[in-house]
Amino acid sequence: MSRACRFLPQAIASTLALLAGQALAAGPAPGHYAAVLPCADCPGIEVQLDIAADGSYALRERYRDREEAGRDHIGRWIMASDERTLVLRGGHEQPLYFAVEDDRTLVQLDREAQPIVSSLDYHLRRDDALPPLVPRLTLTGLFHRGKGPATFQECGIGQPLPVAGAEGYAALEQAYARAKGPEDVALMTQLRGRIEPRPAANGGAAVPTLVVEAFDSFRPGVSCLPPLANAPLAGTHWKLTRLGDTPVQEGLTQEPHVVFDPTGRVIGATGCNRLVARYITEGRSLRIESGFTTRMACAQGMEVEKSMMAALAAARSWRVAGGMLDLYDEGDRLAGRFMAVAEERN
Fold first, then answer.
1. Residue in 333, 311, 331 with CA at minimum distance from that of residue 241
2. How many CB atoms lie within 10 A of CB 142?
């Protein structure tokens, strides 16, 4: 049974075809995508997603039964290692996932990057007639005003935006001058504003520009987190979080995890014992062989160890989506899920 069949009745044929490998996409076509997505307790959610070629996106969501304006988000997008799954990280607590069906269609996936269990329509379709979004939202990032024009590097986007010298800009620049002192540094702040196209400083074509409406205090010494990227398979500390459909319990003797050494060796822990194995990968294919563990007996973790070793031995393919690694068996079923974690260094 395919992974699509494992998680979803045959309700959306095009999505199933995509996940079965009958269609591939190197990335989403830049443009404006829109839909009215299903909602559990409302008539629907009006969604517009603007995908930019530079790896940024803007998203607006508006609930149809509510009077308030839509909620805006911005951030970065990348393609997962399978080149089929679009990953968005920005204003939401968790990444958003979409399947790229073709150059005009995206399909929303669930929070674990799997097809949504529903017969309802989760397609977003490109509409070239839509005007670009003008996001209005709270932004966190680094403001800098040196010898050149002022810039603001929003942490979710990771790229500097020019700042318009209008509305709340004068107060922002004065507060920045007091906070930075004699140093020429970028300082972290949170502000309210909108990103709209304005003519470039050199008189060229309009570029996305930040218009400041209000701001918070500056926080010297604070920086943004690293930008969104797929964690590399080799060299990353992968913490086991799921075996098939079952979440892995916390509080075991050792954290269940694996590290794929660049030389072809797998090292890690099963929750009780240390493990060592060999792996071979080519493209999306993966085989983990000759696995063995130490022989310590534990009050907890023996069942996790047994299931983890079976999942590793069953793995035939892999996918990294941001900081999430999925291993799939020969039937394309989820064998195990791991999350990238930062290792503590002394």
1. 311
2. 19
Radius of gyration of the chain (CA): 23
DSSP H helix total and E strand total for the chain: 4, 22
Domains of the chain in start order, with CATH, are 3-126 (2.40.128.640), 136-219 (2.40.50.540), 237-341 (2.40.128.270)
To the nearest whole percent, how much of the chain has pLDDT over 90? 62
CB 285 within 8 A of CB 317: yes
Strand partners, 141: 154, 189
Q: Which two tokens stand for residue 320?
A: 């990294």
pTM of the full structure:
0.77
Query: Is-contact 11 119, C-beta < 8 A?
Result: yes
Residue 269 Cα to chain centre, angstroms = 27
Q: How far is CA 128 from CA 28, 29, 49, 52, 155, in A?
A: 14, 11, 12, 13, 28
What one-letter code names the amino acid at 45? I
User: Phi and psi of 16, rounded to 5°?
Assistant: -60, -40
How many Å apart are CA 82 and CA 84, to the nearest integer? 5
- Residues 320-324: what's their mean pLDDT? 91
Using the 8-state DSSP alphabet, how is residue 29 labeled? P
Q: Which of 39, 40, 200, 37 is nearest to 125 (CA)?
A: 37
